[in-house]
Amino acid sequence: MSLTDERPGVVASVPPAPLTDQQPVASVPPTLPTDQGQVASVPPVPPTDQRPVTLSGRDAYRDELTRLAASDDTIVCLEADLGGKGHPFQAAHPERFLNLGIAEGAMVDMAAGLAAGGHKPFVSTFAPFAALRAAESLKLTLGYLAAGVTVVAPYAGVSGAWFGTTHHCLEDLAILRSVPGVTIAAPYGDAEMRAVVREAVRSGRPHYIRTGRNATYGSLPVLGDELPLVNWEFRAGPEDVCLVSVGEEGTRLALAARRAVPGTAHAHLVYLDHEHLTEAAAELARHHCRFVVVEEHRGQGGVAEALALLLPDCRVTSVSADRSWPSQGGDHEEVMAALGLDLPAVLDALGRASTTSTAAAGHPTN
After folding, report:
1. Contact (CB, 8 A) for 319 and 350
2. Three-class SS string for 298-321?
3. pLDDT tens, residue order, the chain (366 aa)
4. d(CA 49, CA 232)
5. Between 20 and 30 A from 325 (CA), which of 67, 80, 202, 341?
6. At a CB cut-off of 8 Å and minimum separation 6, what does 153 contact?
7. What are 157's strand-pairing partners?
């Protein structure tokens, strides 16, 4: 049986509504004079979607990619039976939409060929099947060949909840971070996902984009059009403990902790590969020396462990999934709590970090 959103009991995401007459629409392409006095066409600029709607990460990805593909015919969308009915890219660009079924490794291999042919392939499947089942193809395509392929992986962490361990993915950052040359992103909310997708299209570099399932969040504000290396949601004094949030649920919990303990510093990270984390660690260390990293991932191979290695003179405390396997069903937050990922765990870590020195720095503590 294919694992799509069309299965009984699975709530399918609501496809974004089409643009209305009140929204900006593409106008007649402008023209520019050429050296020969002729008139050359300028590719149309995609309409800016100004709907006051916040989509889930995976729906924001689909919507943004569909919009970008209107003015870039090299963009190709590949799915592994996860798109469900009404995929906006399939509706708008059917000649560039491919459903490969449950053949994740073959899908990534095919994307490598498309990239070699001058296309910009975006492939999407469940995070555990992208990062684990197709791991060899990811290593060779995104790493060794440095092909301009973007892998978008929804259902990361335990966002699959009652789907069970087969559909949970708490190990993908450890795997992808060990492959050189791959840009790794875990955006929080609609706007961050769109910015990451635009950057993947613009740069043409291999990307792995981690997201959840149906949760919708408003991204943290940023100045300018580019995502900052470190988004300081709130900066406190140098002796204060700083929360570092990663991904959708890590950021949700960090913001909840900020509401419970006002005045707590909070730095949010989107890009998590070694190169970005190295630069982010240097900026973090310029402002604080004690950190509590919140992430929906195993502690082993996660961001807290990476920052502890990059910040040997700082104290890094990890709030992450423990080493157990969820044995009971529940919704997303219930399964997270069973793994030790909830607000009380974050507040406890903040309390412990605030009473410790940096004497034992260089090793993450749980």
Report:
1. no
2. ECCCCHHHHHHHHCCCCEEEEEEE
3. 333 333 333 333 333 333 333 333 333 333 333 333 343 444 343 344 454 469 999 999 999 999 999 999 999 999 997 766 789 999 999 999 999 999 999 999 999 999 999 999 999 999 999 999 999 999 999 999 999 999 999 999 999 998 999 999 999 999 999 999 999 999 999 999 999 999 999 999 999 999 999 999 999 998 888 899 999 999 999 999 999 999 999 999 999 999 999 999 999 999 999 999 999 999 999 999 999 999 999 999 999 999 999 999 999 999 999 999 988 889 999 999 999 999 999 999 999 999 876 555 555 666
4. 27
5. 80
6. 124, 125, 126, 127, 130, 131, 169, 172, 208, 209, 210, 211
7. 169
Q: What is the dihedral of CA 303, 308, 310, 314, to 10 degrees?
A: 130
Return the structure tokens found at 98.
Answer: 């491919």
45 vs 243: CA distance, rounded Å: 39
Q: In terms of residues, how long is the chain? A: 366
